[in-house]
Design goal:
Layout lengths: L4 E4 L11 E7 L2 E8 L2 H7 L1 H6 L2 E6 L3 H15 L14 E6 L6 E4 L2 H7 L4 E7 L2 H14 L14 H4 L7 H5 L2 H4 L3 H20 L3 H17 L3 H20 L13 H12 L7 E10 L2 E11 L2 E2 L5 E4 L8 H13 L9 E5 L2 H11 L9 E6 L4 E4 L6 E2 L5 H34 L1
Parallel strand pairs: 8-12, 12-13
Antiparallel strand pairs: 1-4, 2-3, 2-4, 5-6, 5-7, 8-9, 9-10, 9-11, 13-14, 14-15
Helix pairs in contact: 9-10, 10-11, 13-14
Length: 433
């Protein structure tokens, strides 16, 4: 059971800089609960509440997702006076999960009103204060445990199925697959409902139980020689452990305004550079089985996104999906734009192979020594650095560098996938004409 640790109001310097939940107290009375990526810095923002409290409480969490979920559970338990969301039903959020063979998962403001008008029984989890963080959490969980979000099953699979984010129960409805393959519907239904139960448990703060259950199921599958199933569950478990530890879901607060001068000095030291770092470019490739493959370039100047200098690339090479070849195409095309300022640092989405590919592309540039290249491998969040034999675990880097690299990676991925979705939607509309 999570328990608050308490400090006198004048001991604010003793608060941790980690993710978690915090509270303001007056004596034994708890009157406000909040969550933060950095408890200490976030509490300092609450000047009015600081003047009312004589005690601060906090609970550290391993991740921002856990902080979001813990905040919801504690608000529900204590109903603090100054959590104004309790005064206005429209200000907080619930995750609704319908009771049917293939449950719909959705976010709503007013569960009671929704239940009255909804034909299906629905379970609600919440309240959640931060709608943006909740939406991001569901998007992340959907990558591991796919589900449907549509209110009514469509006649044909939508883009979510193409992106492997929905098992498309509509396929069973609109085709003869269920009749052609024995027990197919039962199998899909069983796996789908497990996915939804796991999402429910995680949102209720039961992540440890989910991981234990997955590992137990993996061992049973391996014991019965269902190695394909065992491998799938293993990948789910690893992905879940990774995102619960590293996912960034909270929007940057004003207090996190960056001190670029200090950050770039730290970055210079890590990358062993003598020259100053101002312009950083990050690259990502997005494709589904090689179809409508796209690339993106995002640009940060002095640690901040410079969206006017973002660039999109529609991949031209044909054939089987090849991330390295597509990355090379993007970089060669970018290098040929001499009118664009060249970067001081390039961040590539990938591992050693992608790093080497980028270096090969830059080989003919006369000033290659003034462009440092690094690559971030998703699997273990390892940073491969040009000229260094071993990668560095991202979690071992200073917090400000950790945040910068993840922000670059996430922004590049968002930009690439948004362009990819746009192209897929155009193709889908054309195919329906």
């Amino acid at each position: 059971m999570n328990k608050f640790k308490f400090l006198p109001i004048d001991k604010i310097s003793g608060l941790p800089k980690s993710p978690g939940v915090y509270t303001f107290n007056k004596g034994a009375k708890l009157f406000y609960i909040g969550k933060a990526a950095n408890i200490k810095e976030r509490v300092k923002q609450h000047k009015e509440l600081l003047s009312l409290a004589n005690q601060l409480g906090y609970i550290k969490t391993d991740s921002e997702i856990e902080a979001l979920i813990l905040e919801a559970n504690l608000i529900k338990k204590y109903k603090p006076k100054y959590n104004v969301v309790w005064r206005d039903d429209k200000n907080y959020f619930y995750v609704g999960i319908t009771k049917e063979n293939f449950p719909q998962v959705f976010i709503t403001h007013q569960p009671k009103l929704q239940t009255t008008n909804y034909k299906l029984q629905t379970k609600y989890i919440g309240p959640f204060v931060d709608g943006t963080a909740l939406k991001t959490t569901l998007k992340i969980l959907r990558k591991i445990f796919s589900y449907r979000s549509c209110k009514n099953l469509p006649k044909r699979p939508c883009l979510w199925y193409q992106l492997l984010r929905c098992p498309a129960p509509c396929l069973l409805k609109g085709s003869n697959l269920g009749k052609q393959i024995p027990n197919l519907e039962i199998k899909i239904k069983k796996e789908y409902q497990k996915n939804v139960k796991n999402i429910m448990k995680i949102l209720q703060g039961k992540k440890i139980q989910v991981i234990i259950d997955l590992k137990r199921e993996m061992k049973m599958a391996a014991k019965s020689q269902n190695f394909e199933r065992a491998a799938k569950i293993r990948d789910q478990t690893r992905a879940l452990e990774r995102i619960l530890s590293n996912a960034k879901i909270f929007e940057l607060q004003p207090f996190q305004a960056i001190n670029w001068s200090q950050i770039q000095k730290t970055l210079q030291k890590i990358l062993k550079l003598k020259y100053r770092i101002s312009r950083i470019e990050a690259y990502d490739v997005s494709n589904i089985q090689g179809q409508e493959a796209t690339g993106s370039m995002v640009t940060f100047i002095n640690g901040k996104p410079e969206k006017s200098q973002y660039r999109k690339f529609k991949i031209r090479i044909a054939g089987k999906p090849n991330d390295v070849a597509m990355l090379k195409e993007i970089l060669y095309r970018r290098i040929n734009h001499h009118e664009w300022p060249f970067p001081d640092l390039i961040l590539i989405d990938g591992g050693k192979a992608q790093l080497n590919a980028a270096l090969h592309c830059l080989m003919n540039l006369k000033f290659i020594s003034q462009i440092k290249v690094v690559a971030l491998a998703k699997k273990h969040n390892e940073l491969f650095i040009e000229g260094q034999k071993r990668p560095i675990l991202l979690k071992n880097l200073p917090r400000e560098i950790f945040n910068l690299i993840l922000q670059l990676r996430d922004e590049t991925h968002r930009f690439a996938i948004s362009y990819h979705h746009k192209l897929r939607e155009i193709d889908l509309r054309e195919s329906l004409c």
